Amino acid sequence: MHVVATAGHVDHGKSTLVRALTGMEPDRWAEERRRGMTIDLGFAWTALPSGATIAFVDVPGHERFVPNMLAGVGPVPAALVVVAADEGWMPQSAEHLAALHALEVSYGLLVVTRADLADPAAATEAARAEIAATSLGEVEAVAVSALTGDGLPALRAALDRLVARVPAPVVDGPVRLWVDRSFTVRGSGTVVTGTLGGGRLRVGDQLALADTGELVRVRGLHRLGEARDRVDAVARVAVNLRGVPKDRLARGDALLTPGRFRRTDLVDVRLAGDPAADLPATLTLHVGAAAVPVRVRPLGVDTVRLRLARPLPLLIGDRALLRDPGRHHVAGGVTVLDVDPPPLTRRGAAVARAGVLAGLDGRPDLAGELRRRSLARAGELTRMGVTVTAEPVAGDWLADPDHWRRLGDRLVEETTRYAREHPLEPGVPVEVLRRRLDLPDRALVAALVRPPLSLRAGRVATAPADTLPELVAGAVRRVHAEYARHPFRAPEADRLAALGLGPREIGAAVRAGALLKLTENVVLLPGAVDDAVRVLAGLPQPFTLSAARQALDTTRRVAVPLLELLDRRGATRRLPDDAREVVTPPS
Ligand SMILES: Nc1nc2c(ncn2[C@@H]2O[C@H](COP(=O)(O)OP(=O)(O)OP(=O)(O)O)[C@@H](O)[C@H]2O)c(=O)[nH]1
Ligand SMILES: [Mg+2]
Question: Model's pTM, two decimal places?
Answer without folding.
Answer: 0.78
